[in-house]
Predict the structure.
Amino acid sequence: MDKIRIGTRGSRLALKQAALVQETLSQTCGGTETELVILRTRGDRIQDRPLSEIGDKGIFASELEQALLSGEIDLAVHSAKDLPMTLAEGLTIAAVLPRADVRDVLVVPKGGRTPILRRGGCGSSGFSGQFCVGTGSRRRQVLAGKVWENVVCREIRGNVDTRLRKLQEGGYDGIILAKAGLDRLDSSPEWENAFDFYPLSPELFLPAACQGIIAVEAVEETEAVKICEKITDGETALCFEVERETLAQLSADCSEAAAAWCRRERTARDRLLLDVMYADCRVRMTGVVSTEEGRRLAREAARTVKGRDK
């Protein structure tokens, strides 16, 4: 291909993620020209209503998928946790980049108070009054109630910069963001003077399925797919497949509290670990390191948590 057109949403984080794909392609496939094409999705345009009221996670991906199918772009870059469970017909995930930090982060104004912990720790003993956390995620809402004693959750929408601005304006005592996004934006001097950041243990605060993963989508059986085979990360691809299989088995949409975290544990006995949450139920599965075994663990975990929820 003479030029690869890379489609992306227009937020600062989306552009940063697309630039990482662009850089990786340049390093791996030297001489291939790339171009970023910015598209605005329905999810970006509608900011005054909860995500569960306007559709599922696909509202962030549908316009990018349409652009792929129409030939306007060759690749689409997504935060993998925002992908719909079913891709548009004729499309495939051509690559995933190495996974970044999976943790969520509690962000509060500089020197601000933190909620009272039920167990574990995020950096402070907290305070006795009610603590308002901004999050639109059902997963985060459920986990916040389990981790902290005095938390109430309130809807918040917008990109990272918008949410941080809303926190500064005083509508919330704290907000929860993905650490991978914060790390990729890397606005350390500006943010460190305005906020305190408390990373949350993933064992305690289970990440969203595919959190921290950048996924690259393309039309099946195209030259773009073949090129992307050179940039995909094998271990991340395994975890991506297992976590996506878990969500498919749970049939969970954005209105439900669901999470899945797969990782390879390198010990004397190399093994695959999978933590799954659905509603108020949680389970851990272990097995050998393979995609086939990971998919089996996903099916078993989904049956277990859905059975307990009845």
